[in-house]
Amino acid sequence: MGKRLWLWAPLALFAFFAGLAGYMLTQDKDEFVESEMIGQPLPDFALPAAFDGLPGASKADFAGSPKLLNIWASWCLPCIAEAPQLEALKAQGVEIIGIAIRDRPADVANFLGRYGNPYSRIGSDRISEVQLAIGSSGVPETFVIDAKGVIRYQHIGDIRESDVPKLLAELEKAQ
Question: Whole-angstrom Cα distance, residue 135 to residue 133?
Fold first, then answer.
């Protein structure tokens, strides 16, 4: 009798793991990691220029008025998709400071030449140190920073046309 029971044990284990896998596949998952830095001041940073066309970026650049901080990269396909919306925000008077992640100067310049340049400054974060310090987990991500340098809002993923009013409203709230 004991030997027969052991013959069924592999089948029972397989059924258990198959059931567990099936259950996990039916559960909702959160694909976005929200920053724990919302409501906190930007960490101190001073990044060199991402290319020769614009100055670098630092925490001091966020004083005075609300601004957008856009985390992006030339190798990021969703960053191409959001380029027209960033241009639209710039056309409405929004100052956008960029941080290019793990990028080369020539690639940054080429990207901006092809898709437009909505940025007043772009810092080069070659090892993603600042990106991680502000709680960004990917590219693109955009943060609303208030006039005192406090992170007020995080937009995860590329900015779509339908997201522009929300970002403008968050900038207004950050006054």
Answer: 6
CATH code of the domain occupying 46-173: 3.40.30.10
Q: Is 154 helix (H, G, I), strand (E, B) or coil?
A: strand
3-class secondary structure, 163: helix
The values of phi and psi at residue 59, to 5°, are -60, -35
How many whole angstroms separate alpha carbon 25 and alpha carbon 52?
A: 48
User: Residue 86 to residues 93, 103, 158: CA-CA distances in angstroms?
Assistant: 11, 19, 10
Confidence of residue 39 (pLDDT cuts 50, 70, 90): very high
Query: Residue 2's pLDDT is what?
Result: 64
Which helix (H) or strand (E) segment is 46 a member of? strand 46-47
Ranges of each domain in the chain? 46-173
What's the distance, CA 55 to chain centroid?
21
- pLDDT tens sequence across 119-154: 999 999 999 999 999 999 899 999 999 999 999 999
Q: Which residue has the tokens 């005075």?
A: 64
Task: Tell me whether residue 115 is exposed, middle or buried, using C-beta atoms within 10 angstroms of its C-beta: 0 to 12, 13 to 18, 19 or more.
Answer: middle
